[in-house]
Write a structure and sequence with these properties.
The structure is a homotetramer. By secondary structure, the first copy, chain A, is an alpha+beta fold. The first copy, chain A, contains four helices and seven strands; from the N terminus they run βααββββββαα. Helices cover about 30% and strands about 35% of the residues of chain A.
Chain lengths: ~140, ~140, ~140, ~140
Amino acid sequence: MKYVRKINYYETDRMGITHHSNYIRYIEEARCNFMDKMKLPYSKVESEGFMIPVLSVTCDYKYSTTFDDEITIDTKIAKNNGVRIEFEYIITKADGSLVAKLTSSHCFTDKNLRPINLKKVKKDWFELIEKYRINDSKENI
Amino acid sequence: MKYVRKINYYETDRMGITHHSNYIRYIEEARCNFMDKMKLPYSKVESEGFMIPVLSVTCDYKYSTTFDDEITIDTKIAKNNGVRIEFEYIITKADGSLVAKLTSSHCFTDKNLRPINLKKVKKDWFELIEKYRINDSKENI
Amino acid sequence: MKYVRKINYYETDRMGITHHSNYIRYIEEARCNFMDKMKLPYSKVESEGFMIPVLSVTCDYKYSTTFDDEITIDTKIAKNNGVRIEFEYIITKADGSLVAKLTSSHCFTDKNLRPINLKKVKKDWFELIEKYRINDSKENI
Amino acid sequence: MKYVRKINYYETDRMGITHHSNYIRYIEEARCNFMDKMKLPYSKVESEGFMIPVLSVTCDYKYSTTFDDEITIDTKIAKNNGVRIEFEYIITKADGSLVAKLTSSHCFTDKNLRPINLKKVKKDWFELIEKYRINDSKENI
């Protein structure tokens, strides 16, 4: 699932490039966009009393970007077992050059941040996510 | 009431200076520090079911700062009538040069963001704030 | 000139709403979008050795927004004399309700942040900005 | 090397906790503080024409924090060969509970972001960093 956005001026630092911390924010945007496309927007997840907090992130920076650059974030669901979900992200510039590779892992929780098993609590959501996980894998074959 | 902090690298932009939006965040830090010193920390305000959202801010930028600069924010309570509270902030660099002048106005609300009158609901808090408003004025005579 | 964007999750705070400092960033996005539409993108301004730093901002908050809300920022050039330029911004939600009114004033400088007079140094840019200032005024009649 | 700071209100999100992206910024603060203590402040590195951009970061989140929490970031130099440098960070709350474990790796470059070998270009800086890398390891025995 592809998500496109431009780098804002306030996201650059005095090295002249996008501050590296912002990529962690960009993948949150891409993840939310992915969920919108799945018809399971994150605002709906929250309004039904659930949350998907972040357990870990990794980021490998390959090439810098700066103000006005357009980046594309390609997001895939790497794993999903109802308890944990993992995403992979590849960020490229408009000319196709690789900017960064990221991963994030999350758990499903209730509104008090207590872990839940989506298979038991929201089976239809689990199956929807599975559908998108498998389809995205096929896309790559 | 003075609050001192250093400019972080991630707060600069590619103009080589502190991004102007950050000053709005710095005065929030200074305001919270002021409330800590008053023994009315903002976390206590919230834990008792109240909030003090921002109604307006103004900022005049006089001189830029950048990474590693130490700034001092001098905060005063300009007005307080139990319904609204206004703060004034003067930011200077370590060498005394003027960086920016800001103001912020706020109302007192319950946890659902409905306005309240502090004089009626939390008279002791109102009087505490009044004490600091008047003392700070004296300090300048 | 209208600019539309959605509120990101990382832009909210624990009050449950968009943190007020972000609106200062949103109007920078709207301003850059305006300049793109004028065919005078800010990246071009910088690449030719000029900058347009912020001298002051004001913001009146009318109604809160939160994650997933779509906002529209309507930007107008209020003043332009070649030395200073002033913008006005009206932010509304998708349902038309007023979110915030902001202003920003700026000067034109060289790359060392020394003020310049655009009428003398870049007359074509001055006239282009004038055209957009006047047209936007007409739009309101 | 320990660095202490409080969580700011604007760093929380509507989940009620510190937004996870901020930890990437906190370790930059801790890294700069480490370099200050080494008497090799990052502003000096830049003023002599060098930079230390980030190549990768990892973050494992263990326990959430929120506004007003005090965190301690314990930073160590894990590797240093003059071309690359790696840091490890352990973040704890005031009660000693583990908040997060992070790593960051960096290269040394000139001002045009071209990699350099510190052993050849700035041998005294390399040896200074080595001293702190080795001392910090001893501290743990």
